[in-house]
Amino acid sequence: MSPPASLRALLAQSIDYAGMFPPCNLGLETALKNQADYVRSDDVWMLNGFVLPVGQFDAAKQFLSLFDPQHPLRVSALGPKSDNAAKFQDALEKSAAAVRSLSAHNVDLVSVNQLEMFLPQDVDISQLREVRSITDSLSVFWEAPADRAQYTVSLLAEHNSEAGAPAFGYKLRTGGVTADEFPTSAEIAKALVVPATHQVPIKFTAGLHHPIRQFRDEVKTEMHGFLNVLGAAVLAAEHKWDEKQTAAMLEDENAKSFLFDNEFFAWREWKIDIKRLKNRRKFVTSFGSCSFDEPREDLRALNVL
Q: Which of 17, 46, 84, 288 gets the most CB atoms within 10 Å of its CB?
């Protein structure tokens, strides 16, 4: 049975496989072998990039034979974290050079579709303008904590309004391996409403292993659900929700609140049709997960996949 069209629209190319990162912490070879299996699976429509640290680019080249021109390796490059604007500029220049080198290594087998990097607090709009000349046409997502979401998104929106190249996006961390690494629903809600207002692309990382919000013993806290987060992001934009309404959806732990059919995606009484959903997804791109299996297993348990 094919998944409902609205589920496909919400989850198409939505998962960046990050098997090398906690809590999975797989070795490079094992993670790439998994990716090679995933790109040949029936569920490949949900798969986006393979999250690969820039420092691992050279090591990854020896495993490119796992892929072929019909099933290439699409990389989401992860640049190093810098704590100030000066170090950031240097790290970015080296990362951009590494991206160009890997992209040119074997164009039939590997491509870099986006770059993710932490944005230090002292980076200003003038430096962002300089940065665009370094990253050229590459899609870039800048990470900043939830409590800096409003400032960061406003900064990116100002840059995007001037730039002719692809818009810079915002990357939000939605969890981790300990309870203190999970932002509250209110913090995520604020981080969703601001990008929707400015039409700044947003992606997510960490903590979104399960479709629906639930308490998990392994982290001793509530883990946010990826259907909650992606769904709230598109519905908040579509219906101009405020932070309170957005947080209500993020808090919902009842799978029956979510409806998928071949015409609409709905949460409770709020709907969005498939054409509008696909349009909203241009600004709600993907989430990083160390497992590609767990999200699919949970969706099958909910009988939506």
A: 17
Pairwise CA distance, residues 279 & 266, whole Å: 16
Enumerate residues 6+ apart whose C-beta is below 8 A from 159: 125, 128, 129, 132, 168
Domain that holds residue 109: 5-301
Q: How many domains does the chain have?
A: 1
Tell me the three state secondary structure of residue 103. Answer: helix
With beta carbons less than 8 A apart as the criterion, state whether 107 and 82 touch: no
Mean pLDDT is lowest, of 36-40, 75-79, 154-158, 267-271, for 154-158
Question: Tokens in use for 167?
Answer: 């818009």
Q: How far is CA 23 from CA 10, 178, 213, 225, 244, in A?
A: 25, 10, 18, 17, 31
In the block, tokens 């080296």 appear at: 94
Residue (of 304, 292, 281, 227) closest to 41 by Cα position: 292
What is the per-residue pLDDT for 174?
95
Instruction: Report the C-alpha gap between 98 and 106 in whole angstroms.
Output: 14
Where residue 50 sits, what CATH number does that domain have?
Answer: 3.20.20
What residues does 47 pair with on adjacent strands?
15
Cβ 191 vs Cβ 274: under 8 Å? no
Q: Exposed, middle or buried: residue 235 (CB in 10 Å: 0-12, 13-18, 19+)?
A: buried
Q: Which two tokens stand for residue 19?
A: 């098997």
pLDDT reported for residue 133: 87
What would the DSSP string read from start to end of 10-37? HHTT-EEE-TTSTTT---HHHHHHHHHH
pLDDT at 1: 67
Burial code (b: 16+ CB inside 10 Å, e: under 16) for 128-138 equals beebbeebeeb
* pLDDT (mean) for 234-242: 95
- The maximal CA–CA distance of the chain, rounded, in angstroms, is 53
pLDDT band at 105 (very low <50, low <70, confident <90, very high): confident
Number of H helices, E strands in the chain: 11, 13
